[in-house]
Amino acid sequence: MGRVFVLVGPPGSGKGTQAELLRERFGLVHFDMGGELRREMASGSELGETIAGYVNQGKLVPLPIIAEIVGKFLRENKRADILFDGFPRSLEQAEVLDRAIEGEGELELRAVFNFVIPKEMLLERVVYRRLCPECGAVYNLRTSPPREDELCDRCGAKLIQRSDDREEVFLERYETQYEGYVVPVIQHYRKMGKVIDIDATRSVGEIFAQLEESVAQGQ
Ligand SMILES: [Zn+2]
Fold this sequence. Notes:
This protein is of the alpha/beta class. 50% of the residues lie in helices and 16% in strands. The mean pLDDT is 94.
């Protein structure tokens, strides 16, 4: 029986890094909605053409199509352990996932790992983050600053701030996407007894140790 794991958390909580580590350690199959949609479009199928119609007009892909994509993915990977990160992003998407898992019969939703970190701490991580546009090095002006003011240690380029990392952009995303849509997903899975809270203020290694232990159980 394949197991399904879900990672949820606010932007900047470090779950992408943990998803990568879990894939490496356990060979989990990763569901990436954007990638699945692109793959379907590239296949030239009827479904792919329908999806392209929405995407090319800049429209959201409707829920029934999302359900079809998720169902197909689970069917193809039902004997594997699957990791969802960045999906479900809303209560209605969570219900799509639940129905797809139930419909498959050979899969079990094992755990929803909820990355918990205070908003103020996230803001500090994000607002002080600077990137080198030349070599991609990442700094934090508070916790890991470059030796010289806003210049890259490796190549000397002037560091930049991503527009997503600006305080007002971050807060807008946090409130509309996370508080508005993801928090209800967490509440839904908490009622089902599936949520494991992860203290995401800790180091990458400490967080991974907790996840590793949970995923290794009942393997
Ligand atoms: Zn650089």
